[in-house]
Structure formats: C-alpha cells, structure tokens
C-alpha cells in the first residue's frame, strides 16, 4: 500500500475533481460550437476526428504553438499574471462542491467532495468575487484602451451583480440554517418524507441567482467586458497563444462550477427522485447488502448531478446563441433597480413563510 | 509555533512591506490583497472560519476591486504623481513613528490570557456560535451598525439619483 500525503484519500478526490473540471471545460469548447451550429442550422466542427471530437485537441495545439506576443508598454509581469489568476480562481471554487454522497468500503466512508467545511457557501461566494481580478489585471496590464475599458466594465458588472447573488443565497440560507453545501444537499431529500428540491421553495431566488451567474461568468447577454462590436476583443484584445487560451478556458471552468453550484443549491445536488425506494428495492427484493446498495445509489447520484450540470451548461450555451447582448446602461439598470429589490422582496417572502411555518 | 503560522506571518509581513515600497500603485493593491489572504489564513488557524471567509469576501472581493477600479482610472505613476514637500514627509514620518511607539508601548505589558485546553470551546469561531453571541450579548451595537449601513445606503442612492433637467450622458 502506497502511503498517500497528509490529505489521504481526499487528495485523490481533489485531483479527480481537478481533472474532471478541466476535461469538461475542454469539451465545453467543442459543445459550444456544436450547439451554435445546431441553433444556426449549420454543420459545425466535423473535420478533426469522428464527429469533430478531436477538435479541442487541435485547438490546444494551435494555441500552444502560436506566437506569444507582448504589446509595447505592457506591464509584463501582470500581463502574464492576469490569465493565471483567472484560471486559479476558476478552479478554486470546485473544492467545496459535494459531487456525491459517501461511498462505504468496510469501515471507511469516502466522501466524494474535496473538503467539507461549514463555510462552503461563503467560500464559493468569496472565490466568485475574486474571479474579476484576472480580467481586471489582464485588461489593465495590456496598455490598451479597449482592454482597460473591458476590465473596468468587468469590475463594475461583477460588483453590481454580486449583491443580488448574495441576497439570493441568503434566502436559501434562511431555509437551510447551514452554510455547508453537503448539508444543504442532504436536506433536500429525506427518506420516507415528501421533500422538495429548493427550486420549489425558492423559484424567484433561483431566477435571480441564475441571472447573476450569467453576469458573473461574463456570458452573453452579459458579456460586455469582451463586447467585440464596441471593444475589439475587450480585456483580451492584446492576448495571444495560450494566455488567451487560459482566459477562454477559465470561462468554461467558471460555467461548470456555477452550474454545479446551481444544481447543488436549487436542484437537489446528488439526490434524485425515488432514491430511497430504489435502495430499499435492492435491499429487500434483490437481497443486496445495505452498504453496497447505498454505494450504488451514491454512484447513480453522482451521475445524476453531472446530468444536471450538463443540462445547465447546455442552458448557458442555448442562451448565448439566442439572446442579443445588453446595452451597458440596461445591464446596470437590471442589476441595481430590478434584481436587488427583487432579491430583498424574496428575502422578506422567505422570512414570512418561515415565520408562519409554510416552509422550513 | 507551527510552520504554517510562520509561513503565513512571513507572507503577511513581506506583502505588507510590498504595499508600502511598491512604486506602482497597482502592485501595491495586489500586495494588499495578498496581505488580506494571509490574514485570512491566520483566522483559519485560529478556527475562525466565518471571519476568514468574510474577510476575503468583503476586503479582497469587494473593497479592493473598487480600489483597483479607481487606481486604474487615475492611472497614477511616477511622472504624474505630485512630489510632496519635504515638510510633509517629515511630518508623516514623525506621526507614523509616534504611532508605532505608542503601539509598542501599549502592547509591551500585555500578557495574553491563554486558554485552558480542557474547557476551551473549539467551535467558538463557527458561524452559529458567532451568530448567537451577536444576537444575544451584542444585539444593540449590531443593530445600530446595521442602521448605520442603511443610512449610508440611502445616502448613496440619493447621491446617485438622476438629476432633473439636462442629461450629459
């Protein structure tokens, strides 16, 4: 038996989560183009490999072998640091997401989660709010007015939508009474009772969170920081080769993480309907042991969570190729005069419903 | 002293010095963010998870973004920065030095109370414990602080309201 470093089996989970995030982000680039082609009635990438499945590899080779260009007057250190920071902050938030319940082997329980902390939600919120630094630093260090404008737009957009996002989260917190994402997931399904996913109790909160998630990941219709009709390429105008690749990649990692967070908070995470009935069926009718039936449910739950995540990723891409971009003042008005009051009203409604015992 | 504590203190001190000595204001801001991160690490070592997370969200996530935002707009650098007169520099050195002196003098006689390992509640820094303390022992100051925030928010909305008459944007 090889002795693992201090974290033990958790380090394996963290490594797998890291690899899976990168793999999904890689294939998001392919999925984006295939979905765009589908929505615009085109063929899409189909040259590299069967059905164009090797397209992400071809793109990566292209990105790595392109000329690396430093614009004149750029702040070199920060110019390199910007994309790195974007990637780091994108990857950090997946640490606390519960990707599955526990697997039991003998007396050992393995939790399919990087780290279980009771500030999981705050961690996500904090890391998401740091995501803007990569864009800001990269845009500023490029020494280009379009990049700077993109960076400034990104900063003000993120700060504006963070508020509404935080308030939408507070409504979930009021119901769950815990900040741990694992606890929130487990509360959404209890054996032998009718328990609904949070989306049923928090429909308005989910809509607010979803809109803010689009804004925080800089996706259309909120992609003002890289608005090519006004700002050339926005914050990554001056970037080339893999530094540009890291920015584009970080966006997809962010989408993956945000989709995972939405699934966990509002769509039951690794729970799926009738899981306890299925487990009991395996135990009672098929004569399985309880632990192995539970392990099977855990694996199915993980697959279910990934199905939800893929659904949300598809939703992100569907929106991108359907809706036009906002104008900047419309974006600000939506954030400050519609979403924040709505979020406050949502908190008040949730508080009232909890007070009168309608939901708990 | 654990090696983690030493490492975090080292990073905190080096980056705090970097804030002061960096020529470029944007570098200063980035060093300050690094300082906040190492302070959050210290909070985590003290088992104050909530404080650590909130420190990152509020300071690193919101306030420093606004700082960076303003500095990028002003675009301060060596050429455009006005040189301060020697008198101002001397005054700043004297004021800062006396503050340091007072802090050192005040801290010299402090004996940390320490804690009893048998009765110490390791959950003291967790969110629910903190909430109970805030809402039981310190309810009035807490509510007063929230009223203060509300006043600031109303003031900001008033300032930001569109003025009647001609628009220039």
Folded structure, characterized:
The complex is a heterodimer of chains A (360) and B (169). With 360 residues, chain A is mostly helical. Chain A has one domain (9-355). Helix content of chain A is 66%, strand content 4%. Chain A is built from 14 helices and two strands. Chain A has a two-stranded antiparallel ribbon with strand order 1-2. In chain A, a hairpin with a 2-residue loop joins strand 1 (98-105) and strand 2 (108-113). In chain A, helix 1 packs parallel to helix 13, helix 2 packs across helix 11 (241-266) and helix 5 (132-141) packs antiparallel against helix 6. The longest helix of chain A is centred in the middle third of the chain and has 32 residues, at 145-176. Mean pLDDT of chain A is 83; it is low at 1-5. Chain B has 169 residues and is mostly helical. Chain B folds into two domains: 1-81, Four Helix Bundle (Hemerythrin (Met), subunit A) (Up-down Bundle); 121-162. Helix content of chain B is 72%, strand content 0%. In chain B, helix 1 packs antiparallel against helix 2 (25-45) and helix 2 (25-45) packs antiparallel against helix 3 (49-74). Classes of the chains: A mainly alpha (360), B mainly alpha (169). Chains A and B meet through helix 4, helix 5 and helix 6 of A and helix 2 and helix 3 of B. Chain B: It is found in: Cell membrane.
